[in-house]
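Submission sheet (multi-component)
Chains listed below:
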Amino acid sequence: MTATAGHELLDYARSAIEHAYERGWTDGLPVVPVTAPMVEEFLAHTPRPRDEVIASLPHLKRRCTVEQAAVNAALAGCRPEYLPVVLAAWDALRRDRVSTAAWQSTSGPAPLLIVNGPIRHELGINCTGGVFGPGFRANATIARAVGLIVRNVLGVRPHELEQATQGIPGRFSLCIGENEEESPWESLASELGLPEGTDAVTALLLRTCEFVDNRHTRDAEEVLWDIADTISRTGAAIGRHSSAGLVLSVEHAQQLAAAGFGKADVQRWLYEHCVRSHADLERAGKGLRGLEGPGIDEHGLHMLPSPEQLLVTVAGARNAAISMVVRPFGFAGWSRVAQPIQRAGSE
Amino acid sequence: MFDAMIDPTANPAEAVRATPPAPRPDRLRGLTVGLLANTKANAEDLLERVGELLATREGIAGVVRRKKLSITDPVPADVLADLARQCDVVVVGVGDCGSCSASAIADGLALEAEGIPAVVICTEAFSAAADAMAELQGSPGYEYVRIPHPLALLDAEGVRARAEQVLPAIVGGVTTASSATAAA
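Outcome: structure written.
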């Protein structure tokens, strides 16, 4: 190819990207122009029929088929073999009762997708250092595909049906692998009832993520107290039940395990200790004293609806004791479902 | 030039037709008014005050109160049928969040489709969502009543004042006449 011909082809590629912007198909970043043969390449990686509905918003008369998901996964920059993960992500999101309200909400929540199983390594889904990104195509584009489906297929666009007050940083970029290899505990998918080693996606809609940096103590319970302080902040206390989850670093997880804590023990400890006092809630204008309701007692407000509603997963590098508290959206509770990933030829 | 590029957007799964507005009565005297509230803060109180004002100023026969528990989903079919059977007109509100503003517009249109004149109250902060839903439902430009935002933090007196303020528009929205109050 001559240099001139090369320039012309690249100029054409650039104008195709501009065309996508003009048509309103992008989330603000450049997209990959999608052709019919590309869509077929993607569909070849799933055993699911192209007209199967994988997402719907009945109140908007919108639904998304496998084929439309494939188009938007290609648009997002996914490789064809990522499509089964995108589809499983929607399977998981559909199980969350709050998901139909999420996309239009003032809260502007982000889906956190957690991938388990050998597929993490096959597709290059990062589960160690810098797990929340950037730098890893699978993590970035699988999460982005979910957002492009919301925009293009479900028709929920900012300043129209999407009414996020601020939205959350990283919305549609949160896809992580669980660091199963360095976690001291059973995998998340296994905790949620799938056989160990199953390729699966778990989803949770988040309001935000907040770090807990505790490289200060060798006492596991002191680490839990530090995490409890973040979980119990009044800003996140809305309604009778807020909730929380934990993306633990390897060091914190191993420290807790070495002190004899299983995942269920961590959940139970935090459920019991994450209580905000009536006086503190009143000082923030959120007083609940004297009211009846789940989670309210004479001490104050329990920040977690139940021990098992606290997501516990392990991700990141084993290089510092820094963990993330995540904040679920809505009050209906997390589905606690891990959806198996169906791949072509794997049935 | 870009015909080979696949359009990633989708049209609504069902064809939508415009909902023609239900025929309006010329006044509210002697009629039964439905109050369809959602769970947003002060929504029920605002509708209650509106109902009281309609009784004293417009001479309505009475109100039928219903509450919608999901802020996203359309009004349940049994509640819709119930309102259509018992009421002459319905006031819907309050659209005061991303999902519920759009949903309130859909409920207003659902009532119109049943032949019941409806008027939807939304806070002005969510007019973009309300307009988008009207368009999605095939009825772009569907009229609704806008009130200042926010509503949630108003005390009882503030809610009463908001009801006073919005009353002429509500009466105008479900009748062919202007409000008796406004005309006075």
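Remark: The helical segments of chain B are 43-58, 77-86, 98-113, 127-136, 156-174, 180-183.
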